[in-house]
Fold this sequence. Notes:
Blueprint: E1 2-5, E2 20-23, E3 26-29, E4 35-36, E5 41-42, H1 47-64, E6 72-79, H2 85-95, E7 102-107, E8 117-124
Parallel strand pairs: 6-7
Antiparallel strand pairs: 1-2, 2-3, 3-8, 4-5, 6-8
Amino acid sequence: MREVVETEHAPAAIGPYSQAIRAGGFVFTSGQIAIDPATQQVIAGDVAAQTVRVLENLSAILEAAGTSMDKVVRCTVFLKDMGDFKAMNEVYGKYFNEAPPARSTVEVARLPKDVLVEIDVVALTRE
Protein backbone atom coordinates (compact mmCIF):
# COMPACT_ATOMS: atom_id res chain seq x y z
CA MET A 1 0.00 0.00 0.00
CA ARG A 2 1.16 3.52 -0.87
CA GLU A 3 -0.42 6.54 0.79
CA VAL A 4 0.14 10.25 0.18
CA VAL A 5 0.76 12.27 3.35
CA GLU A 6 -0.35 15.88 3.38
CA THR A 7 -0.68 18.51 6.10
CA GLU A 8 -1.38 22.24 6.21
CA HIS A 9 1.17 22.48 9.04
CA ALA A 10 4.02 22.19 6.55
CA PRO A 11 4.60 24.03 3.27
CA ALA A 12 2.53 22.99 0.29
CA ALA A 13 4.48 21.23 -2.44
CA ILE A 14 5.94 23.70 -4.97
CA GLY A 15 5.99 21.12 -7.74
CA PRO A 16 4.58 17.76 -8.80
CA TYR A 17 5.47 15.85 -5.63
CA SER A 18 3.94 14.92 -2.28
CA GLN A 19 5.05 16.16 1.12
CA ALA A 20 5.58 12.51 1.98
CA ILE A 21 4.65 8.97 1.02
CA ARG A 22 3.81 6.28 3.55
CA ALA A 23 4.62 2.77 2.29
CA GLY A 24 5.90 -0.55 3.58
CA GLY A 25 6.21 0.53 7.22
CA PHE A 26 8.14 3.69 6.33
CA VAL A 27 7.46 7.36 5.70
CA PHE A 28 9.58 8.98 2.98
CA THR A 29 9.49 12.78 3.07
CA SER A 30 10.28 15.10 0.24
CA GLY A 31 13.07 17.55 0.93
CA GLN A 32 11.90 20.40 3.12
CA ILE A 33 13.21 23.94 2.97
CA ALA A 34 12.71 26.92 5.29
CA ILE A 35 9.23 27.91 4.15
CA ASP A 36 6.76 29.09 6.77
CA PRO A 37 3.58 27.06 6.17
CA ALA A 38 1.40 30.00 7.26
CA THR A 39 2.76 32.37 4.61
CA GLN A 40 4.31 29.96 2.07
CA GLN A 41 7.35 32.26 2.09
CA VAL A 42 10.99 31.52 2.89
CA ILE A 43 11.81 32.71 6.39
CA ALA A 44 14.49 35.30 6.99
CA GLY A 45 17.58 34.26 8.86
CA ASP A 46 20.82 32.36 8.86
CA VAL A 47 21.33 28.61 8.43
CA ALA A 48 20.49 27.94 12.09
CA ALA A 49 17.11 29.68 11.80
CA GLN A 50 16.42 27.93 8.50
CA THR A 51 17.36 24.55 9.97
CA VAL A 52 14.85 25.04 12.79
CA ARG A 53 12.09 25.82 10.28
CA VAL A 54 13.04 22.82 8.11
CA LEU A 55 12.99 20.43 11.07
CA GLU A 56 9.68 21.84 12.30
CA ASN A 57 8.23 21.27 8.83
CA LEU A 58 9.52 17.70 8.82
CA SER A 59 8.12 17.12 12.30
CA ALA A 60 4.66 18.31 11.16
CA ILE A 61 4.74 16.00 8.14
CA LEU A 62 5.79 13.01 10.23
CA GLU A 63 3.05 13.78 12.75
CA ALA A 64 0.50 13.87 9.91
CA ALA A 65 1.82 10.47 8.83
CA GLY A 66 1.27 9.09 12.33
CA THR A 67 4.93 8.96 13.35
CA SER A 68 7.53 11.30 14.80
CA MET A 69 11.11 12.53 14.69
CA ASP A 70 12.21 9.81 17.12
CA LYS A 71 11.31 7.22 14.47
CA VAL A 72 13.62 8.74 11.81
CA VAL A 73 16.17 6.21 10.55
CA ARG A 74 17.83 8.20 7.75
CA CYS A 75 18.38 11.87 6.84
CA THR A 76 19.97 13.65 3.93
CA VAL A 77 21.09 17.23 4.51
CA PHE A 78 21.84 19.51 1.58
CA LEU A 79 23.81 22.66 2.41
CA LYS A 80 24.46 25.60 0.13
CA ASP A 81 27.78 26.13 1.93
CA MET A 82 29.61 23.43 3.90
CA GLY A 83 30.95 26.30 6.01
CA ASP A 84 27.48 26.27 7.61
CA PHE A 85 27.89 22.66 8.76
CA LYS A 86 28.64 23.49 12.41
CA ALA A 87 25.68 25.87 12.81
CA MET A 88 23.30 23.43 11.09
CA ASN A 89 24.64 20.54 13.14
CA GLU A 90 24.09 22.36 16.45
CA VAL A 91 20.40 22.82 15.66
CA TYR A 92 20.08 19.33 14.15
CA GLY A 93 21.53 17.80 17.32
CA LYS A 94 18.73 19.31 19.42
CA TYR A 95 16.14 17.43 17.34
CA PHE A 96 18.12 14.17 17.18
CA ASN A 97 19.94 14.03 20.50
CA GLU A 98 19.38 10.39 21.43
CA ALA A 99 20.21 7.54 19.03
CA PRO A 100 20.44 9.90 16.02
CA PRO A 101 19.57 8.53 12.58
CA ALA A 102 22.05 7.68 9.86
CA ARG A 103 22.83 10.78 7.79
CA SER A 104 24.60 12.16 4.76
CA THR A 105 25.43 15.84 4.40
CA VAL A 106 26.43 17.28 1.05
CA GLU A 107 27.18 20.74 -0.30
CA VAL A 108 25.19 21.65 -3.38
CA ALA A 109 25.49 24.46 -5.91
CA ARG A 110 21.95 25.73 -5.39
CA LEU A 111 18.74 24.89 -3.55
CA PRO A 112 15.11 25.77 -4.31
CA LYS A 113 14.27 29.42 -3.63
CA ASP A 114 17.97 29.98 -2.84
CA VAL A 115 17.64 28.67 0.71
CA LEU A 116 20.66 27.63 2.75
CA VAL A 117 19.56 24.12 3.78
CA GLU A 118 17.22 21.33 2.69
CA ILE A 119 16.61 18.09 4.58
CA ASP A 120 14.68 14.93 3.79
CA VAL A 121 14.07 11.95 6.09
CA VAL A 122 12.96 8.34 6.13
CA ALA A 123 11.10 7.27 9.27
CA LEU A 124 9.46 4.14 10.59
CA THR A 125 5.72 4.23 11.01
CA ARG A 126 4.42 3.69 14.53
CA GLU A 127 2.36 0.68 13.53
